[in-house]
Amino acid sequence: MAQKFGWQPDDSGAQEILDDASAPVYALTDARIINRLSQPSWSARKQPIVLFDALRALHPGWVRRAQGIGDCVSWGYELACTLVAAVDIFVKREPWQWLGEFATEPIYGGARVEALGKRSGGWADGAYGAAAAKFVTQWGALHRIDYSLSTGDESHNLTTYSKDKAKDWGNFGCGGKQDGGALDKVAKSQPVENAYKITTFEQAMLAIESGYPIAVCSSQGLGKRDSDGFAPPIRKAWHHCMCFAGVRYDKPGLLVSNSWGNSWGASGRVPGVEWDSVKKCSAWVDHKTAGHMLARGDSYALTGVDGLKSRKIDWSGGWQIHGR
User: Fold this and answer.
1) For residues 33 and 285, what is the distance between their CA atoms, to the nearest angstrom?
2) Which of 113, 126, 114 minimizes the C-alpha distance to 5?
3) Which of 2, 102, 185, 200 has the most Cβ atoms closer than 10 angstroms to its Cβ?
4) Does 48 fall in a domain?
5) CB 266, CB 46: distance < 8 Å
6) How many domains would you assign to the chain?
7) Which three-class secondary structure state does DSSP give residue 291?
């Protein structure tokens, strides 16, 4: 699979978003916020937690597609939105209709234009995580369905990924040149509640235990999976956004999922992952590598309608949740 990237870090821009009181994007530094998450009990846990289990139950035909331009940030955030919706619906039995995965093109355009207050994002590829986090929380996420009947714009049919549409919307913003804000209004009907900046392995582990995936942006490259499903760090830089969607305890690490289609293959042992669709795009990374990726400072956990709180989920007993 051709390696396409697209993460363009902007530390000052990210800080402006974190400092903006109107944007539900937060730094996870306040002890009161950190304490909303339960404390880990590594010694008591044995089986990995994989958020894809909820997606498999709701969308058994799901497969990971491949980005066509440098729009990886939108792919990382799309998957995080898809997973947090699946967990909310399946675990909490929320009375929402499952409409499938989310679309990348609106997130890409929104992160480059609307979230930054620009009229045009330009034609060079790339975006950064905080901007995507701002768009999906302050505007919203759109499913990969046809919105053209409600907006009157044929380009708003999002049923199939289009690299050309991603390129176009990356310049003109969510909905394209002739949109006039119509698709933004639709997006605002289904926003992500909050995004929390995650900078350590421990924070990431706690977020995933409560069902919150993390869109992770870093320059860390990864190699082929070893015999235990781990992809080792490599020297080649990947200026890339992916998604952390699982945690394991026997050899502490996080499950990372890519946006290059069948980039890792379905063969080999990947503890906690039985679904070939996930094996093909995912690998475990050890806690040191995961911590290094998160320490770069542009990774965010996405929450559903309830915001960030401890959710004691019985991940091995039929997806029951306690203490709502």
Assistant:
1) 26
2) 126
3) 102
4) yes
5) no
6) 1
7) helix
Residue 316 lies inside a defined structural domain of this protein: no
Check if the beta carbon of residue 243 is closer than 8 Å to that of residue 76: yes
Q: Would you say residue 6 lies in a domain?
A: no
**How many whole angstroms separate alpha carbon 262 and alpha carbon 321?**
33
Domain with 240 in it? 11-308
Of 225, 222, 216, residue with least CA distance to 234: 222
Place of tokens 């950190």: 34
Question: β-strands 214-218, 300-302: how paired?
Answer: antiparallel
CATH of residue 149's domain is 3.90.70.10
* pLDDT range class, residue 293, cuts 50, 70, 90: very high
Say whether pLDDT at 313 is over 50: yes
Alpha-carbon span 214 to 246, nearest angstrom: 10
For the segment 111-132, the average pLDDT, to the nearest whole number, is 97
Contacts of 53 (CB under 8 A, 6+ apart): 315, 319
Per-residue pLDDT at 105 exceeds 70: yes
DSSP state of 155: G
DSSP state of 162: -
pLDDT tier at 315, thresholds 50, 70, 90? low
**Position 32 pLDDT exceeds 50:** no
Give the helix/strand (H/E) hosting 92: helix 72-92
Grade residue 187 by pLDDT with cuts at 50, 70 and 90.
Answer: very high
pLDDT digits (tens, 9 = 90+) for 64-103: 999 999 999 999 999 999 999 999 887 766 556 788 999 9
In a domain, 215, yes or no: yes
Exposure string for 113-146, b = 16+ CB within 10 A, e = fewer: bbbbeeeebeeebbbbbbbbbbbbbbbbbbbbee
Which residues lie closer than 8 Å to 92 by C-beta, 6 or more apart?
321, 324
Q: Which amino acid is at 13?
A: G
The residue whose two tokens read 């950064």 is 128
How many other C-beta atoms are found inside a 10 Å radius of the C-beta of residue 10? 17
Distance CA 256, CA 141 (A): 21
The per-residue pLDDT for 322 is 39
Q: What local confidence, expressed as pLDDT, does residue 324 receive?
A: 31
